[in-house]
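Box S2. Input/output pair 1.
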Amino acid sequence: MKLHSIALAAALCLAALPPSTAQAADAATAAKPGAAASAQVWDLSQLYASDAAWESERQALAAELPRLRALEGTLGSSAKALLAGMDQMSALRRRLSRWAIYASLKADENTQITENQARRQLASTLGNQYGEATSFVNAEIAAIGRAKVEAFIAAEPSLAKHRQSLTTMLRMAEHTLSPKEEALLAGAAEALEQPQQIYTLLTNADLPWPKLEIRGKTVVLDQEQYAAHRSDPDPAVRKQVFDAFWPVYKAYERTIGAVYAANLRGTVFNARARKFSSSVAMAQADYNIPEAVYRTLVQEANAGLPTLHRYLKLRSKVLGLPQAGYQDMYVPLAKPAGTSYTQAEAEALTLAALKPLGEPYVKQLGDAFKQRWMHSLPQRGKRSGAYMNGSAYDVHPYLLMSFNGDYNSVSTFAHEWGHAMHTVFSNSQPYENSGYSTFIAEIPSTANELLLSDYMVEHAKSREEKLFALSQQLENLRTTFFRQAMFAEFELASHEAAEKGQPITGEGLSKLYLDLLKRYHGHEQGVVKIDDLFGIEWAYIPHFYRDFYVYQYATCVSAAAFFAEGLAKGDTALRERYFAMLKAGNSADPYPLTVAAGLDLASPAPYRALVRRMNRVMDQLEALLAEKR
């Protein structure tokens, strides 16, 4: 039985205080001019008032663990005994999730503070101790058997909230080991998590970032500044940024390769120990997702490469590039009059774009913006990327990103708040069913992005703004569908290599990734030139340490395109089905929930529909470009 929500949030502590003067100065240089003016810092005091309160709860939680171990052998004695045991474990898991999020959020807001990292380790240790203390549960439920468990549920109505969890345990019985073996695997969990922890600290806190002079200003080219400057309109600056940034990762190719190889071998070890046919089969089993979903996605992404190449050629034409390089992939094709946004402007745009979701949704979202749920202020040492952590069921979701004022920040803002509102809706379920699979999690977030993009197209005030909005929608489809599918193919190939016992080295991983980069970007056809150095990009992707996670961005954008189109047309019946899916939380397996909403993500149809959408948007863009000015 997994620790509720913590695995989902892991993305996606000291008392929360405003940033120091030095941090504020760093933030001012990290963000575009004016972008940080309305950025936020989250309020973690709503979780715990002080470090002392957090430490007190740690000790209290640790004291409860022996009581969980005492439940072993009692669950099958009666329906009431099963309910009492499940409730006891659930109540402690609920407290533990809230406690762990405090440590996780503080560690991420500044990875350079040792005390924060120590708290994260304590949280990981206690979470694994909880796993050890409850490691008998799956085997015990399997031994009780389906008939008796179902009879208990029928006899004790209060067990209904545990039905999905119990059903999953029964379904996973063939992959459940003896209690002693389960305890052994639970005890190994902390050691197997170390590759991700090592990678996070190495790449966020310890890599030696170079300094660059960009337009007369000195920039420390860390991950945040790379993301901020890789879209620079000047091709020379883009090349300068890529030429300075990627050699840092290349210098650590062997080390990061060894770290990722350890992660792969840990995954393969777990899959074999639990008698799964493959690592991908194990990853799909928890939420009962057909393996055909993963493999169909990869197949259809490759079938759609001519559409991707059409878009990449169009980019080169619009940008006036005789030969596009990989360093040109992030520069926008067009810019509206105002290219820098404050967070307040991002909030207003998001609320306007999401009106198709209905007035109650928009009002609820607007009210949430006024709370301190988000840490969006850029600062040194902050974890890169963006996520929503919904582990604190009794408080509210927390969101992390660095708002730097460009359109991508606005889009990311809308995306992460889609996650947050999903959590708010799913929390209408009892705690035991309030979590949800990533298989559905990325649908509302990506739907928000598409609705925002459609809004920007529709409300463009000039030809230039419309060009920008159309190009942003195309870029969203490129990065969320094709790029994530490429990542998925890399993960599948690297795990299969580990399963075959092949050597896993940084150099080998770079070659594998480089071959994919070249195929997806049409290197051999002269579409985009891919320098060999950029094969190291795999080392930049933290999501690879969450095995078989990223493919769901691609499946979800396909589902999101379906919902966004219907919602924009005012289809109220579709909107009801959409919210029903979000409110269902983890009360049912995710694949049947999407099928009930009208989508079969194991078939080619959704992916082909997305490719058709991309071609339609390109038709619009080309027609606009052909108009006489």
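Box S3. Input/output pair 2.
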Amino acid sequence: MAVYIVMGVSGSGKTTIGKLLAKELNLPFYDADDFHPSENVEKMKNGIPLQDEDRKGWLAILAENIQKWEQGDGAVLACSALKEKYRQQLTSIPEEYLKWIFLSADFEVILERLKARKGHYFKPELLTSQFETLEEPQYGLRVNVNTSEENILKEIMTKLKAPKAEIGLIGLGVMGKSLALNLLSKNINVSVFNRQVPGLEENIAKNFVQENAEKYTFQGFDDLKEFVSSLNRPRKVLLMVNAGAAVDAVIESLLPFLEKGDIITDGGNSHYKDTWRREKMLREQGIHFIGCGISGGEEGALKGPSIMPGGSAEAYKQMGPLLEKIAAKDKTGNPCCTHIGPDGSGHFVKMVHNGIEYAEMQLIAETYHFLRFYTNSKPTAIASLFEAWNKKMKSYLLEISVDILRKKENEDFLIDKILDAAKQKGTGGWSTNAALELGVPLDTITAAVLARNISGMKEIRVNASYLYKNDNQNGNLEEIKDELFQAYKTASIINHAVGYDLLRVASSEYSWNLNLSEISRVWTNGCIIRSGLMEDLVDIFKDSNNHLLLNKNIISEVEKNQASLTKTISIALQSGFAVPVLSAATNYLLNFTSAQNSANMIQAQRDYFGAHTYERTDKPRGEFFHTQWKNNS
């Protein structure tokens, strides 16, 4: 039978709560103070703190009795057990039969209680030494006693009945709440934690538990130690907090409560280099760290996102099954979750996903804008056109654009009331920076990032529109819609080629051994850039990880539509409409397929002003030359 030890400093209520618990569990109650030899009692009456030597015999007697109680009907014992070595000496029975309940409270709360007590030999002056001696356990139940006895008992019983959680989630924003509900819907036992910020974030976790109490049973915490204690070993903690300093702060606050083998998973949009740094730091302390990209927004998090975890294979073996349970499913029923690779590879892949997403969104936006103002088409007409296109594209972003264009507020289209100044969280720009570091052209994604930047210059753009007489020309929808579709489709292919090339080069540079086919499969459902093209890429990259534009089927498709792409851009630019991603896709394609481009002039210029040297077409690669260019004659 189980033996329950109610522990804490004097005045925390061990005896009172222990008796109430014993009655609730129908077990005998014992007070450890009753087992002290007379010399110990005399010392405490005289205000003399007990030394470890004084406690040896007392603890040995208690350990013997704990064995007897466990072999009998069980018991509840009230015992201070302030030091870990005391608790170890009391652990005379298997851990599964010994239940520790730590009654916790602030010094001031206990002091006031002791001052009010009468007829007890413990003097309030000894409280300071008790708090100095206390080594709080990192196991068992932790209950704050600054509430009524009824509430304390209720919390203890709730926690005793509740099984240990398989996973703990920190951060109950929109994504955190949705992921928690997703986990619970898969019958995964979850504990949730949210910080307490007076006036801003108060009782978030407890309120979230209460709001969902009719459907799910789980625990919410605002005390980090209690939260960690509620988790099964090895502890698995999923962070859903803002990227950057907040992640480091949470990790730092978690570490004192974790043990070797525990796993922290960062599910936010962290930079892959930060993830790399954190993984290395935690590995040295025996803690696993997974940088996990999660795509799908609020709905995806709730119903099944695309999940991209990176880290050690050992960590994924522990955490992967839980992530796979909550992930979206591909067309064969397999989870859209896979072990991406080591280090920061998971967050790198998510970053590139977001980069591709930026360009796909901009591509749709500039196509809509061109149709709206070049052909004077109503949003509903463009929505119908996009809907027809999407029967072939099967693009989630095109699908939601149809809904957006049809949305009305009263009699007006809502799209017309939205300010044309786009926001961004930075992941698109991170892709551009990574491409620059790796020497990879990223035309479409970079163009999309910069398009958002210039959209934010609203006041300047308005002023400039008055200064420059940009007379937009008009055209006919029926005349351009077919070639515009071919242009849109081709630009989308090129954009994916650009993003995947960054993955390909990073995989080689960082020795990640990325599986582009498997990454494509993970992106076929749950994520923002899911599409028919993504389904095709699963098979294309099974055969080869080469640049997408070198695939024979892609070559055929692009060649067929290249004239429509360039013609559409020409019409748009001549008519006064910016199409940055369409243009970037075309320039990338022309540069990529050019056996001879303009870089020889660049090299000559660099050698002229900086003596940077150059290679020659009539000499082997790797030989460098310098010329005195200025003719002094």
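Caption for Box S3: Residues 477-509 form the longest helix (33 residues). DSSP finds 26 helices and 14 strands in the chain.
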